[in-house]
Specification:
Elements: E1 2-4, H1 7-11, H2 14-25, E2 41-43, E3 55-57, E4 60-62, H3 70-80
Parallel strand pairs: 1-2
Antiparallel strand pairs: 1-3, 3-4
The chain binds FE2/S2 (inorganic) cluster.
Length: 100
């Protein structure tokens, strides 16, 4: 799980988001979660600056992931671990799906 920390995303809360993700996944930045499913890291700009904070997971870009939504976001990602259609769904605007 790569969280952008460059200026646009940082100004929109990526550092606070990282802190909340660390709590939600029970692992520190640069480490892998105890269940072995997620590794958290900061990255530089991933070219989606207008929609930050941006999180890149596998082949999906997740936009506007706010720090206060970190727990729900990680819950959604954990649910995708057993979903064979993960990454193939069309995002629905106005829903809590972050898969943009
Ligand atoms: S600053 Fe985050 S995607 Fe560019």
């Amino acid at each position: 799980m790569r969280v952008c920390r460059t200026l646009s995303c940082a100004l929109r809360g990526s550092y606070a988001l990282m802190s909340e993700l660390e709590k939600s996944l029970n692992c520190a930045r640069g480490e892998t979660s105890p269940d072995g499913n997620f590794t958290l890291e900061f990255v530089e700009c991933i070219a989606d600056c207008g929609c930050g904070p941006v999180v890149h997971v596998d082949r999906s870009m997740h936009e506007n992931v706010k720090p206060e939504d970190a727990a729900a976001f990680t819950q959604q990602l954990k649910a995708t671990l057993t979903d064979p259609t993960y990454g193939q769904k069309t995002p629905v605007l106005g829903t809590p799906e972050w898969n943009g």
